[in-house]
Specification:
Radius of gyration: 34 Å
Oligomer: single chain
Low-confidence stretches: 1-88, 627-636
Helix content: 10-25%
Number of strands: 40
Length: about 800
């Protein structure tokens, strides 16, 4: 028994020793009795904690009213703060996003025909210039493009890169072009992308329309050898925000005080400053209250608010933000992110920080700009023509070139001011310097298009070739509008070789046509008078909003993320079009605006009925505009329906003959019922159809002095998405009239023209200008012109008869 008892005591002693060794060995100093047995000690003192823990730094902002999460304990122990700020201050990095800089500013770029080219600029930081390795291009071409004679031509800052054969008809192809050292520069860089394409088998003019190469924005980028794409160090780097894989630029403004109505004007002011600095064509601004979950390409993240507000969502705020206005990039505020920090101890200091962003863009009131900022999607910037002027094509970005194909085509842009008024009578001239070879046959012709509409045609009727030296080609100005206008020169060249189309004829390299950059575009004096309402003037030049000292009233139906984002995107797009920011004042109710210029942003169901009527919209729009709720009846055969009504209505044959007469007048004399009217017809109420998801409308204030613009949609989400889609460059240039309705499913914009515009003359009095205004108005109203002419002749005849009776000899 004694032996068993000794063995039990021995094994009990061993078990207790093993249990004692289950805890890890600890060489730290002995803890006091009763202290917490946490195995991991708290973070030792570091440079991160003193700005938060030291009372002199926190004390100046402590008396301000703050939200509950922003209240800090007066205890000197900083332990509770790190868990609150470290967790949300980490942003996930998009895979591959830091080593790529997307450079294509078009949502969809198609290089069509035998010769096509685009040129634009992009901004690089010094670190990006040093890290740039290659330019990658993704593309796919038509099957009929001959790879042996078709090439992509790329140049950076006028330095040609290696030519690439176009040979990706089945699947998308990618090419990587090495960027030589010293080609790129800090700041603006010019990228030229063009294509020369030939048909495999066909030699006809029609076959040239089958040639195309589509460039993929997601596969067109500059490749860096380090993670520098999203890293910025100073305010000038805002211009290097760039694009994403969809050719869009996003500005995410993180504002913890978003719900504060008093801060709305500051956020809209900040949006304009950022948009004017980036100058990108497809900008989308989002205002949120929380940090983004990941960092994306082409996105500028901005943290704005008081230092105390930003301390709750970030870390390591610079001490300057607690004492004075601060605006700069800070790489240590949020992990994996390089945000722009706009802050200060008070809201007034934040406003001062916002104003510092406008310093490089200040333009004295009344100063007229000479160009329209387009270099981000078309370089160089478009000249703004205000009066009689002759512009060489070399100043518009064109170079002398020779062409060996069948259809030569090139584009350039001319800018018009907001009060351009010459759509019914004005004529510009293209003074053409060009040559064509002896192989070009009579029947060839040179066509001029303005904004996609044919404006003039010059036939080539001589054999043996020829040279044009400042050949004047009249170009009607009816298709010009405020803002940038695209003018296209196209030469259709027919030869005997093409008619025969022998093997190898499609790839001939012998030049047939040459265009010289000494050609000039002559814009004569034209009538200068603004019209109200006119969405085209707002889209092209921002008029009428940044025109006076009084701030523009902005009315929002609610101060939440979607509505604020829509308002910020729209306001910023108008500021970019005008070239300068506008003063903003948010108002609590539309009823207090009076006759000022104003912008209204909100869901149509939340707008007052009186406001709906002011824009000449149907009163039922607030209830009836529900996208997708109306079932459309099947379409009927129009011929059958017309024959049925001809049987029901007396005089149907007579009405049909009148329609034929009207069609004949339109075809031969360009006369219609609109031009034959005595006075413009009254405005009709507009009701948005079910397929429309977003709408811009413009009207006048109750007294007619101010201009009001409405951005509305059925829901807040459709409002934000609609503004973002319509403000993209390709769609923004289509905005005109008094209503522009966007169909998101069909990606189409429909406009409603103004029937009775109000004249807004802001030019000094001039008899010459009034004569041009009268000429344009009478040309638009032929019937009124005819009656005025008949009246003038009648008065002249009566005066002559009376004078002869008084002064003639009596028999």
């Amino acid at each position: 028994m004694r032996r068993y008892l000794s063995a039990g005591l021995f094994w009990s002693l061993i078990a207790s020793c093993a249990f004692a060794q289950s805890s890890p060995f600890d060489m730290s100093p002995e803890r006091p009795a009763g202290s917490s047995p946490a195995p991991v000690p708290s973070r030792p003192p570091s440079p991160v904690q003193p700005p938060v823990a030291v009372p002199p730094v926190v004390q100046p902002v402590a008396p301000q009213p703050v939200q509950p999460p922003q209240v800090r304990s007066q205890s000197p122990l900083p332990a509770p703060i790190p868990p609150a700020v470290s967790t949300p201050a980490t942003v996930k990095v998009e895979q591959g996003g830091d080593t790529r800089r997307y450079v294509l500013p078009y949502e969809k770029l198609t290089l069509s025909g035998e010769m096509d080219q685009r040129q634009w600029s992009f901004y690089l930081t010094p670190e990006q210039v040093n890290a740039a390795v290659s330019l990658n291009i993704g593309y796919q071409n038509a099957v009929v493009v001959a790879p042996e004679s078709s090439t992509l031509q790329v140049s950076l800052n006028n330095v040609p890169l290696e030519a690439v054969k176009i040979e990706a008809p089945d699947v998308e192809g990618t090419v990587s072009l090495k960027i030589p050292q010293g080609v790129l520069q800090t700041g603006a860089n010019i990228l030229t992308l063009g294509a020369e394409q030939r048909h495999r088998t066909d030699c006809t003019i029609q076959s040239t329309y089958d040639l195309w190469t589509e460039i993929d924005p997601a596969e067109t980028y500059i490749d860096f050898n380090s993670n520098v794409s999203g890293r910025f160090t100073n305010l000038d780097d805002i211009q290097a925000t760039g694009l994403d894989e969809n050719a869009a630029t996003s500005i995410e403004i993180v504002a913890p005080g978003l719900a504060n109505p008093a801060f709305a004007s500051s956020l809209l002011r900040l949006s304009q400053a950022l948009a004017l600095r980036t100058q990108m064509p497809n900008q989308n601004i989002r205002i949120v209250s929380t940090l983004p979950l990941e960092r994306k390409a082409g996105t500028l993240v901005v943290l704005v608010g008081t230092a105390r507000e930003l301390a709750a969502i970030s870390k390591n705020l610079p001490p300057e933000a607690f004492t004075a206005a601060f605006a700069d990039f800070e790489n240590g505020v949020v992990d994996n992110l390089s945000p722009l920090l706009v802050s200060g101890p008070t809201l007034q200091a934040v406003d001062s920080a916002i104003e510092t962003l406008f310093t490089p863009m200040v333009r004295a009131p009344g100063t007229q700009r000479a160009t329209l900022a387009t270099k981000a999607w078309h370089a160089p910037d478009v000249p703004l023509v205000l009066s009689d002027r002759r512009i060489p094509l070399s100043e518009l970005g064109l170079q002398s070139s020779e062409f060996a194909g069948r259809r030569f085509r090139t584009d350039f842009y001319i800018g018009m001011p907001a009060d351009f008024y010459a759509s019914a009578y004005g004529e510009a001239s293209l003074l053409l310097d060009a040559a064509y070879s002896s192989k070009v046959l009579p029947g060839s012709h040179i066509d001029i298009y303005v904004n996609g509409n044919i404006a003039s045609t010059v036939p080539i009727s001589n054999n043996g070739g020829g040279i044009f030296r400042h050949l004047p080609i009249k170009v009607t100005m009816r298709h010009f509008q405020p803002g940038p206008n695209r003018v296209t020169l196209e030469a259709v060249l027919m030869t005997a070789e093409d008619q025969a189309c022998a093997p190898g004829a499609t790839t001939s390299a012998t030049p047939r046509f040459a265009l010289f950059d000494t050609s000039e575009m002559h814009i004569p004096d034209y009538a200068r008078v603004g019209r109200k309402p006119d969405l085209a003037a707002m889209a092209g030049t921002g008029r009428p909003y940044p025109r006076g000292e009084d701030p523009v009233a902005v009315s929002l139906d609610r101060f939440e993320a979607d509505t604020m984002s829509a308002a910020a995107t729209l306001v910023s797009r108008i500021a970019v079009a005008s070239g300068r920011p506008m003063e903003i004042e948010t108002v609590a109710s539309p009823l207090v605006i009076g006759d000022r210029d104003a912008l209204f942003v909100g869901m149509i169901s939340q707008l007052p009925q009186a406001l709906i009527s002011q824009f000449n919209l149907a009163p039922t729009s607030q209830v009836a505009w529900k996208t997708g709720t109306t079932v459309q009846a099947p379409a009927q055969n129009q011929n059958v329906l017309f024959d049925q009504w001809r049987e029901r209505v007396d005089g149907g044959i007579w009405q049909g003959q009148v329609s034929s007469l009207e069609e004949w007048l339109k075809r031969n004399f360009d006369l219609s019922s609109d031009t034959l009217r005595f006075l413009p017809s009254a405005e009709q109420s507009y009701s948005p159809p079910d397929n429309v998801s977003f709408m811009l409308a413009q009207g006048l204030s109750p007294s007619g002095e101010g201009v009001w613009t409405l951005a509305t949609a059925p829901t807040a989400t459709e409002l934000r998405e609609g503004v973002s889609a319509m403000t993209h460059e390709d769609r923004w240039r289509q905005v005109s009239g008094r209503v522009a309705a966007y169909d998101g499913n069909a990606d189409k914009i429909e406009t409603v023209e103004v029937e009775r515009p109000h004249m807004d003359i802001r030019q000094p009095f001039s008899i010459w200008n009034w004569r041009l205004i009268a000429a344009n108005w009478l040309s638009s109203n032929v019937f009124s012109y005819s009656l005025a002419f008949i009246g003038f002749v009648t008065i002249l005849g009566i005066a002559t008869f009376s004078m002869l009776r008084l002064m003639g000899r009596k028999r």
